[in-house]
């Protein structure tokens, strides 16, 4: 009886020994995996070609995917600095979230970016940039300063990430647009919403100040994925502060009504 008991104890001791070895191996593999994840270099982040506007490219500089630095290369001019910092608190809400900051010549922006299986959510977006930075996305020469706030959800589709829903407010201070010559427009505000897979609804309003060169209201309706068919309706009216060049350009839109307003009914220009 004593011998049997000793044999059983030996077997139990051997089983516990193998269990301890397996546990140590498991802890080692888990630690190794966590270490690989935590130290994953920033270079693992790849942005597909064509996803960024204006032929921009993103190049890793240093750090990890959790806290790193990248360089946003532009077709012309100095590159912009991009930093990303992981926000662990978002895990309580079941999502991954990074705070992204962009800094460049005349450009400053930040947002919370949450990638998912079906798309990317961008929240808390704030941005400020000089008008000449708009050359990256449009051929229209612009002056002044832009300040924007908003949020947008980008749906992952066959052609890439496409805007599906969200809202944006934009203020264009000391607005200037050059056609044959610079046109001073005052300060313009834009408010837009996106819904139902990209259905756009927005309004552009010149600020009615004592020295404003322009009054009016323009409404935008259409689908952001079909910019050639975004309809613009409303009216514009030059004030006594409007330049002769601005009056001439507004005159090309049509004749004034009894209130001195120029009706607008067409599609987004240059789209």
TrEMBL record:
UniProt-listed Pfam families: T2SSN
Membrane-spanning residues: 15-38
UniProt entry tagged with the keyword Plastid: no
Coiled-coil region list: none
Cellular localisation: Cell inner membrane
Major place of residence: membrane
GO BP annotation list: protein secretion by the type II secretion system
GO cellular component: plasma membrane; type II protein secretion system complex
Keywords of this entry: Cell inner membrane, Cell membrane, Membrane, Protein transport, Transmembrane, Transmembrane helix, Transport
InterPro entries for the chain: T2SS_protein-GspN (IPR022792)
Family to which this protein belongs: Belongs to the GSP N family.
Record-given protein name: Type II secretion system protein N
């Amino acid at each position: 009886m004593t011998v049997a008991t000793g044999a059983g104890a030996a077997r139990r001791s051997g089983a516990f020994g193998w269990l301890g070895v397996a546990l140590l191996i498991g802890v080692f593999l888990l630690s190794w995996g966590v270490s690989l994840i935590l130290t994953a270099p920033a270079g693992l982040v790849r942005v597909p070609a064509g996803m960024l506007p204006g032929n921009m490219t993103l190049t890793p500089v240093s750090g990890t995917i959790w806290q790193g630095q990248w360089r946003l290369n532009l077709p012309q001019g100095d590159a912009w600095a991009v930093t990303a910092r992981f926000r662990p608190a978002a895990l309580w809400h079941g999502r991954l979230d990074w705070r992204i900051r962009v800094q460049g010549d005349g450009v400053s922006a930040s947002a919370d970016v949450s990638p998912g299986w079906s798309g990317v959510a961008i929240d808390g977006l704030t941005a400020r940039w000089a008008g000449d930075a708009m050359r990256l996305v449009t051929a229209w020469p612009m002056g002044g300063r832009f300040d924007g706030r908003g949020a947008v959800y980008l749906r992952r589709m066959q052609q890439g990430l496409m805007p599906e829903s969200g809202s944006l407010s934009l203020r264009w201070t000391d607005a200037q647009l050059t056609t044959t010559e610079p046109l001073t427009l005052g300060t313009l505000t834009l408010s837009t919403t996106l819904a139902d897979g990209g259905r756009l609804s927005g309004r552009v309003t010149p600020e009615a100040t004592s020295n404003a060169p322009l009054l009016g209201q323009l409404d935008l309706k259409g689908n952001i994925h079909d910019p050639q068919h975004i309809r613009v309706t409303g009216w514009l009216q030059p004030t006594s502060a409007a330049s002769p060049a601005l009056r001439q350009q507004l005159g090309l839109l049509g004749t004034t009504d009894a209130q001195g307003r120029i009706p607008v009914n067409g599609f987004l220009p240059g789209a």
